[in-house]
Write a structure and sequence with these properties.
The protein has a domain of 65 residues: 434 Repressor (Amino-terminal Domain), CATH 1.10.260. It is built from five helices and no strands. Helix 1 crosses helix 3 and helix 2 crosses helix 3. InterPro entries: Cro/C1-type_HTH (IPR001387), Lambda_DNA-bd_dom_sf (IPR010982). Pfam families: HTH_3.
Length: 102
């Protein structure tokens, strides 16, 4: 029988979400470590056995994984992502004036 919290999550879900998001982005633990300023060992520890993270670590981790802090805690189906600065804005065609016909 799985040990679930009151919200139905299994302990360790946070670490699995971090790892899944990292793999989804095609990043290595070293790349995430570089982006966050944390050590590779710390990233590996967060993915396997997350303990108390500071607010600063959560913020840096969410930015490195192009998501929000709540996105790291939310179940996959409801995980929000923040707009990527690397994603170009779509090009819109100029609006054309139409003559009003009566």
């Amino acid at each position: 029988m799985e040990n679930r919290s009151q919200n139905g999550e299994v302990p360790g879900d946070f670490g699995r979400r971090v790892k899944h998001r990292r793999l989804e982005l095609g990043l290595s633990t070293a790349e995430v470590a570089e982006r966050t300023g944390m050590s590779t060992r710390r990233i590996e520890h967060i993915e396997t056995d997350p303990d108390a993270l500071t607010g600063g670590e959560l913020l840096r981790l969410s930015r490195a994984l192009d998501t929000t802090i709540s996105g790291l805690f939310a179940p996959r189906r409801s995980r929000p992502t923040r707009p990527s600065v690397l994603t170009p804005e779509p090009e819109l065609e100029p609006m054309r004036r139409t003559s009003a016909s009566s």
